[in-house]
Amino acid sequence: MDIRYSGLSRINHWFSVIFVVVMLTLGYMMFFANDRASGSYAEAAHIGVGFFAFWFLLWRTIYRLKMGFPAHKKQDRRHEFARVVHYLILLGLTLLIITGPLYLFTENEGLAVFDWFTVNLDLTALSIVHEPAEEVHKITGLYVLPVLLVVHIAGAVVTYLSDEGAARS
């Protein structure tokens, strides 16, 4: 029974961490910008990085769901809770990578990727989902995902500091 993540899974995890931290930082900069220019700059960077994060996080989420999670030596409530948190993080990331482009495309706005190119998909026929997609994106990005990440990090610290974590290192 494999109880560890593969090397590829660990690399995926840390690249995801980088993308998520950058995207959250830019999202918060956008949301709390003091002036329109700063907000627009952060938004352009958020969209540009988001384009690449979309493809990576989509692939990573599909890969993780396909490969599953490693089994634990002992199944207890803590491990079950950790599994639920993992799935909720993947769900949150999936919601973000879908709703971000969706709420732009439903207003016929394109994804301008660092002024290199623009991706546009006219989904104005689905304009009824624009507001819900925008709200889901903002609530998930500003509140839900950060809380899940804090719980995930706290769980990792507790596991590492416990006898179980010390035995693995």
Describe the structure.
The chain has 169 residues and is mainly alpha-helical. The chain has one domain: Up-down Bundle (Fumarate Reductase Cytochrome B subunit), CATH 1.20.950. 73% of the residues lie in helices and 4% in strands. The protein is built from five helices and two strands. It has helices at residues 7-31, 36-67, 77-105, 130-161, 163-168, and strands at 111-113, 117-119. A two-stranded antiparallel ribbon has the order 1-2. A hairpin with a 3-residue loop joins strand 1 (111-113) and strand 2 (117-119). Helix 3 (77-105) runs antiparallel to helix 4 (130-161). Belongs to the cytochrome b561 family.
What is the helix/strand order?
A: HHHEEHH
Please mark out the parts with pLDDT under 50 across 5 or more consecutive residues, or reply none: none
Which structural category fits the helices and strands?
mainly alpha
Helix fraction, binned, reads over 70%
CATH topology: Fumarate Reductase Cytochrome B subunit
Topology:
Elements: H1 7-31, H2 36-67, H3 77-105, E1 111-113, E2 117-119, H4 130-161, H5 163-168
Antiparallel strand pairs: 1-2
Helix pairs in contact: 1-2, 2-3, 3-4
